[in-house]
Write a structure and sequence with these properties.
This protein is of the alpha+beta class. The protein is built from 3 helices and 4 strands, in the order αβααβββ. It has helices at residues 3-6, 31-49, 56-70, and strands spanning 22-29, 75-80, 93-99, 102-108. A 4-stranded antiparallel beta sheet has the order 1-3-4-2. Helix 2 runs antiparallel to helix 3.
Length: 110
């Protein structure tokens, strides 16, 4: 039996998202919000891995809706593998971090 015959669609190896550490590039956020954002990013990453969400924009939409419910104001989420940014944000409401190869820029403005 060849290697290709052994592979099946959807038979991905299980991944433990709880052990993934967030690497911060920039952080100006209260601990409660920071922890919520990291957990939310891990949930979105898991949904993408499990094929519940197809694109990074779907992950960002999922995260924005949850952040808007939990904390008032207008939250903005940018997810990608290679990007730069310059943005205006409210004090104590921005985080730029990485989960493995994926970057998450989360900030509140408005």
């Amino acid at each position: 039996m060849s290697k290709l015959e052994n592979l099946k669609v959807g038979s991905q190896k299980e991944k433990d998202f709880e052990i993934i550490e967030a690497r911060f590039t920039y952080l100006d956020m209260e601990d409660k919000k920071r922890d919520f954002c990291i957990d939310l990013a891990k949930q979105a990453y898991k949904k993408k891995y499990d094929l519940e969400l197809k694109y990074y924009r779907d992950m960002a939409k999922f995260m924005k809706e949850e952040l808007d419910k939990k904390f008032e104001g207008s939250w903005h989420i940018i997810i990608g593998t290679h990007f730069g940014s310059f943005c205006t944000y409210e004090v104590k409401c921005i985080a730029l971090f990485w989960l493995e190869h994926l970057g998450f820029l989360i900030f509140k403005h408005g």
